[in-house]
Specification:
Largest sheet: 5 strands, mixed
Number of helices: 1
Strand order of the largest sheet: 1-9-8-3-4
CATH superfamily: Immunoglobulins
Shape: elongated
Strand content: 35-45%
Helix content: 10-25%
CATH architecture: Sandwich
CATH topology: Immunoglobulin-like
C-alpha cells in the first residue's frame, strides 16, 4: 500500500510539472488580430489604405493624433462592440468597415510637417496598433 501511495504521488507530481510552462507569462496572449500590415506610409496627397485582419473579435480603443491627442470611442459617441463604426478627425477618417476590414483615409497635407496617426486595437487582452504617416509639402 505504501508503494502504491508513492507511485500515485510520483505520477501526480510528474503530471503537474509537465503541464507547467516556464516560457509563457500569465496574461501573455498570442496575436489574435493578425493585421495584414502595421505600418502605412502616404505621400502628401489625399490617400486611402485598407488593412485586413484574420481575427474578427477586435475593436478600436482609440486614435493617437500626432503623438498628442488621443481620441477614444467615447469621445466620438461610438459603441466599439459594433461591427462597423467610424472615427472622424480633422483631416483623417478611420473606419472599421466590418469584422476584418479597417479603412483609413487622409486628406491632402498642405503643411510642411508630416502627420501621423496611430490606431490602437484590442482583442481580449491582446493589444496591437497600426501607424500611418503622411508626408508634408
Amino acid at each position: 500500500m505504501k508503494q502504491a501511495s508513492k507511485l500515485i504521488g510520483l505520477i501526480a507530481l510528474t503530471i503537474i510539472l509537465a503541464s507547467c510552462s516556464i516560457d509563457r507569462l500569465d496574461g501573455d496572449w498570442d496575436d489574435n488580430i493578425k493585421l495584414s500590415t502595421r505600418i502605412v506610409h502616404f505621400d502628401k496627397n489625399k490617400n486611402a489604405a485598407t488593412v485586413k485582419t484574420r481575427g474578427s473579435s477586435w475593436w478600436i480603443n482609440g486614435v493617437l493624433v500626432n503623438g498628442k491627442d488621443f481620441i477614444t470611442a467615447q469621445d466620438q459617441n461610438i459603441d466599439p462592440t459594433q461591427d462597423s463604426y467610424t472615427f472622424q478627425g480633422e483631416w483623417f477618417t478611420v473606419e472599421k468597415k466590418n469584422k476584418t476590414t479597417l479603412n483609413i483615409t487622409m486628406d491632402e497635407n498642405r503643411g510642411e510637417t508630416e502627420r501621423k496617426i496611430i490606431i490602437h486595437l484590442q482583442a481580449g487582452n491582446y493589444f496591437d496598433r497600426v501607424s500611418i504617416t503622411q508626408e508634408g509639402e
